[in-house]
Specification:
single chain; alpha/beta; Rossmann fold; Single alpha-helices involved in coiled-coils or other helix-helix interfaces; 3 domains; 14 strands; about 45% helix; globular; Ald_DH/histidinol_DH
Length: about 450
Amino acid sequence: MKTLTFRDPEYPEFVATLNRRAIPSDEVRDTVAGIISDVAQRGDAALTDYARRFDHAEFGDNDWWVTADEFKAAEKAVTPETKKAIKASLKNITEFAKRSMRKDWSYKNAEGARVGERFVPFDRVGVYVPGGKAPLVSTALMTAGFARAAKVPEVLAATPCGPDGRVNDALLYALKAAGVTEVIKFGGAQAIAAMALGTATIRPVDRVFGPGNKFVVEAKRQLVGAVSIDLLPGPSEILVLADKTGDAKCIAADLLAQAEHGGDSVIGLVTDSQDLLDKVTLQIELQAATLSRGDIIREVLEKSSFALVVKNLDEAVAIANDFAPEHLSLVVAKERRILKRIRTAGAIYLGNLSPVAVGDFLAGPSHTLPTGGGGRSFSGLRADQFQRRTSIVKLGEKAVARSLPHAEEFARIEGLDAHGRSVAVRIEQPAAEPAPDSSMPEA
C-alpha cells in the first residue's frame, strides 16, 4: 500500500492525481469499437465466435438462451439458506425502490396552462451481470430487482457462462427471483452490443444497466444513442475517511473486502491520525493472510491502494470530493458535520458499524455505483431510471390567450412566424373542447 503524509515532498503531486477522469485508453476504445462493429455486421455469428474465444464455450444455433429447464434445475440446486438471503435482499430493494420512484404530477402555470410529468416503465431493458471471477448474485438483484419494482415488463439479462455452457445456479435463481424474463449466456462488450443493437435472435432493449470491466463500460459509453444507459460503473473502489475514532480492524476489513474484487479495484484510506494508519496497516497484513482470495488482494494492495495522513479533516474532505469514490466509509466523531460537506460519493457508509458489504448485498440501495471519478457527474442506479419520463401540457382558451403575447414575441425574435401563428389561430377560432377526464394528473 502506497503510504504518504502531508509532510512528504511527493504528497501534493500524488493528491493531485486523485482528481480522476474515467477516460478510456486508445487500446480499449479501439478494441471495443471493433467488437461493436462486428456484432452489428455479423450478429449471432459474432457472438458465437466471441463465446468460443473468451469463455471457451461452444454454442450451436440459437442455444445460448437459458432454458426453462435450466431455471428449474437451478431452483432445486440452490440451498434454503441462499434462497432466504436472496429473498431478504429483494425485500429491502423493493421497499427502497418504492420510495425513490417518481410519481405523476401537475400544476397550473402563471398563464393557466396545466403542465406536469408522467412516468411509465421502460418496455424492455437489459441488465449486465459480471460472472468471470465470481457469480455476482447480488448484482442480479441490484439491477433486475429495481426493474421488477418499477414494473418493467421485459428484462433481458446477459451474463457469461462457463466452458460447459452453464450459468451458476445461485445466479440463475437470483435472476429469476428478480423478475428477469430472458437470459443470454454472453459477457463482455459483445453482450452490451447485442442488447443495444439486437441480432437476428435477440431483440434490442431500450436501456442497458449494470457494472462490468473496462471493456463493458466502454461498450456502454460508445453505444449511447443507440440505447440509453444507467451510468458507467467499472471496477470496485472504496475510500475510508476516518479520524482517531476509527476501528482499525473494521476499516481494514472493509478495504480488503473491496480489494478481493481484484482487477482494477482501488482502495484508499485518508486520516488525520498516524496512529490509526499504523493500526490499519497491521490489520491488513493480519487479515489478508487468512483470506481465500489472498493473491488477488495482494495484487490490488501492491498496484492500486493508498493511505494518506492529512493535516486535518478539512483536507480529507477535499480529497474525498476530488476522488469521488464509489464507496465512502465515513468514520469520524463529528459525523453529521462532515457528512454535509461530502458531495461526490456514490454511496456513504457511516460509522464503525456500517460495513460496505451489507450495502453490497442487501441493505436496499443498489450497489451499482459510479466509479473512476464518475461520482462528480453520475448518481448510483435508482428505480426511477427504469421509468420513462414524458412531460404533458394542456391549455384552455384563457391559458392560450394569456400565453399568446409571449409566444408571439419569442416567434418574432427567433424568426419562426409559424410558431406564433399556431398559437394565435386558437384564439381566432377556438376549438371545441372534449369533455374533461382524469387523464391529466391533478396537482
